Prior knowledge:
This protein is 30% helix and 29% strand. It is built from twelve helices and 19 strands. It has helices at 15-18, 33-36, 79-96, 131-135, 137-148, 161-164, 208-216, 231-238, 251-263, 277-286, 308-324, 343-356, and strands at residues 6-8, 23-25, 42-47, 53-59, 65-71, 101-106, 115-120, 123-128, 152-157, 170-175, 182-186, 189-193, 221-225, 243-248, 270-274, 291-296, 326-336, 361-367, 386-392.
Amino acid sequence: MSERPIIKLRPREDRRIRNGAPWVFSNEIIMDAAAKALAPGTLVELVSTEGDKLACGYFNARSLISVRLIGPPGTEIDAPFFAGRFTRALKLREHFFSTPYYRLINAEADGLPGLIVDRFAETYVLQISTAGMEGLLESILAAVESTLTPATVILRNDSPARALEGLSSYMRCAKGELPAKIGVEENGVQYFADPGHGQKSGWYYDQRENRLFMARLGASRVLDAYCYSGGFAVLAAAMGAREVTGLDSSEPALALAAEAAAVNGVSAQIRFIKCDVVDELERMTGEGERFGAVISDPPPFARSRKDLEPAARAYRKLARLAAGLVEPGGFLLLASCSHTVSVERFSTECALGISRARRQAALIRSAGAGADHPVHPMLPESAYLKALVYAVD
Length: 393
């Protein structure tokens, strides 16, 4: 290993890092001319003001998060390093899942900041969001091949976050050919995902446990708002719901949802509607519709802190509309995947919305993502998913 550039912390800025924090911010380091001259994603050694070696990571002077830590000082970051992290992550998932459908790598919590890997049997979808991980792509792919023996590897490197790192967006197959769709098995149900053009990797594994919780409530009539490719809706029907309505604005996603309903033999119980979801909820409210269970799982309303207040108002409005559609004695799930909206703020806006619908409710479940979405203990903001379930009178 060649000698890496040194990034030095400012005086008294080492406490967080010594306590295990995985990020170093730009105001915590000495941003001298030598640091500014480093190419985005350069592997560096982090040292304290006194010269103590603290960790290695990758550096980007353009980013507020200047260093993302990846290992102890002097760690060789190569294909065997990634193979070790993949093996560890795989062993953890195999504790919880008997079928090979899950998030395999969840960035910092799996020791690989800037990297997401979703597994669909022998197909792996990789998402890289940082210059540091992009520069290590060759080693990552070598480790995927040696450790996971994939049939297909898809690079979905089109996240808006890449622009903040000075990266372009692209999507390509690193191995195999891009399928039009792939199968997903979850909670005993067969779904379909589009890994090339769907949102994120084509599927949202994070709601797996919340889907099962809602389906087990046994509601006869279910409304799934922002149903995407049918995660909540199809499982509810498969577990006995007599009538399910799914709402979404994406025609391709609804086509996959309809295909999942067909392959699971529940098409007769489900209708999918392409619409502006808020407009449709308002129409249903005006017509006095009621459901035994209502699910509202929208895309993120707040992608940055400047969006926080408009997002809060949008969540409040959704809570009001959704709560008004629940029949007395029914259930309501309200979810947010906006990482900038805290669970406390989301809970407050949901409570306000329910109140403004003039409904009484009791919170019976507060949850996030499942065990395949671990959270770094010193990075609580990475627990982005909030899912609140209410019993509504």
